[in-house]
Design goal:
The structure is a single chain. The chain is an alpha+beta fold. It has one domain. The chain has helices at residues 2-19, 52-59, 98-104, 106-111, 117-124, 130-150, 156-168, 216-234; strands at residues 65-70, 75-83, 86-97, 174-176, 183-187, 192-197, 200-208. The N and C termini lie far apart (47 Å). Residues 126-160 form a coiled coil. This is Lipoprotein. It comes from Flavobacterium azooxidireducens.
């Protein structure tokens, strides 16, 4: 089961590796990339402006609670507040710069040295086609069969649930958001908003209401408002 789960985790990376090509027609008509966002040079640089004061108009009339979690390779910036009985969350889950990507994905940039952040996000954060879904279903079925031959038993029901869940998160999930940064795309299934400003990728989440009962439209609107504030701060 270990190898099967590993494949589930790397499916988006496999899809990106195969399809990322700056000369591919699917990458045509990209928005012009600006160099306007320069608040950070690396994912290790702090967002010093992520404070109660900065978030005040998003949380009004409540006072936001800010939490900053420093991890090994990046920092998560989280906030939450409560108005009446409704709780809201706004966070910057991760920040990437183009230089970060070039360090982490050397083989990709060796083959595509002029790849921009917009092109990378446009290729990586996209819905799988039916053809791609069938391809990875076959890959996962093949791996499961191999493990059936080497292990006592693989829980078929659990495997199918994991497989269907992983693939459904990539199928018909992404919607491009207009007029936000240089490029922005939203995953309606995971509540993730990915925004590019110059050479920076902001991974943002907005949520209104507890998970499972949250209002997706209000959550997206909160994420967009927060993203615009960050972009304006960074320019």
């Amino acid at each position: 089961m270990k190898n099967f789960i590993l494949i589930l985790l790397i499916i988006p990376f496999l899809s990106c590796k195969e399809s990322t090509n700056p000369n591919d027609s699917s990458n045509s008509n990209l928005q012009t990339v600006t160099k306007g966002c320069n608040c950070i040079k690396s994912s290790q640089d702090p967002l010093d402006f992520f404070t109660e004061e900065f978030l005040a108009d998003l949380a009004e009339p409540a006072i936001p609670v800010v939490e900053i979690h420093k991890l090994k390779n990046y920092t998560m910036y989280k906030s939450h507040w409560k108005i009446d009985d409704s709780v809201s969350f706004f966070s910057v889950e991760e920040i990437e710069t183009l230089s970060d990507l070039k360090s982490k994905r050397k083989s990709l940039f060796k083959n595509n040295p002029d790849l921009t952040m917009v092109e990378y996000i446009k290729t990586y954060y996209k819905s799988m086609t039916e053809e791609e879904v069938k391809k990875y279903e076959a890959l996962l079925d093949e791996e499961a069969q191999k493990q059936n031959n080497t292990e006592n038993e693989v829980d078929e029901e659990t495997r199918k649930k994991l497989q269907n869940s992983a693939l459904s998160m990539q199928k018909a999930a992404y919607t491009q958001i207009e007029n936000l940064g240089d490029y922005a795309v939203y995953n309606k299934k995971s509540n993730d908003l990915h925004v590019v400003c110059g050479d920076i990728h902001f991974h943002i989440r907005g949520q209104v209401g507890p998970w499972g009962e949250h209002d997706k439209e209000k959550g997206l609107e909160l994420a967009k408002l927060g993203a615009k504030k960050i972009i304006n701060q960074c320019r």
